[in-house]
Amino acid sequence: MTNTPIQRDSFIERDARRRALALLDPGTFRELVDPFDRLSSPWLPRQGIVAQADDGVVVARGTLDSQPAVVLAIEGAFQGGSMGEVSGAKIAGALELAVDDNRRGIPTRAVIVFETGGVRLQEANLGLAAIAEIHASIHALRTFGPVIGISAGVVGCFGGMSIAAGMCSYLLVTREARLGLNGPSVIEQEAGVEEYDSRDRPFIWGLTGGQQRKATGLVDACLDDDTTAIRAQVLAWLRADAPTPQRSEQIEYYLERLMHVDVTNQPSPEDVRVLYAAARAGDPS
Fold this sequence. Notes:
Elements: H1 16-23, E1 30-32, E2 57-64, E3 67-74, H2 85-103, E4 109-114, H3 124-141, E5 147-151, H4 160-167, E6 170-174, H5 184-191, H6 201-208, H7 210-215, E7 221-223, H8 227-239, H9 251-259, H10 269-280
Parallel strand pairs: 3-4, 4-5, 5-6, 6-7
Antiparallel strand pairs: 1-2, 2-3
Enzyme class: transferase
Pfam family, one: Carboxyl_trans
Organism: Pandoraea terrigena
């Protein structure tokens, strides 16, 4: 008897363009502002950094489940998926066009694939302004239907773009993904290695990894790294209404959870899970 190897179509191993291609209905992929348009960052070459023709963001129009859709995929291999003036404007502009479509009666949906460390330090203020526009566009678009976020790995999703992910109607991660406002190296730099050791991978994934984020209710699904399963979940959410209230609207709930964190001790992953489990059970302690 021979063992048949498991066939797996990895989503993580795809680059941004192939992720967008895999999510959209077959034969409908059409890239907007593609690399041949040569729209790259004007600021990186001035700092001795080679720019990329698409500035690390793929904007793809097509259909999902035969409905108009736009997929925005961030390329983590370019500058850690960081957001600058051009890359941020591409995402914000595409979301704004989707909002315009919906206002004109064309129900255009959006999926954002997050693979980003947040704002690009070389373009800090410009990147922050673009991320703010992305936040506003997600907020406007989700009034018409669910906005879907995906964070698969390898970079994860941090900084201002983690706020964008949190604003999505539904958020999907893999076990390999990480989601947090500040990256491990930033926390270690600011608070010291005693507070957060960026080399302690089990500790980092225990607090910010996909399984932990699902266990604490900060994401809606944690799936295996399988393209077919991820696409199926996206389609299921697009067929459903957006949740009410949406996660980013539950301000009092999350503030109340933070009030119960013991800041005198480093919480373990189990401590965090217990904290959220108690809240879901109706126990404020």
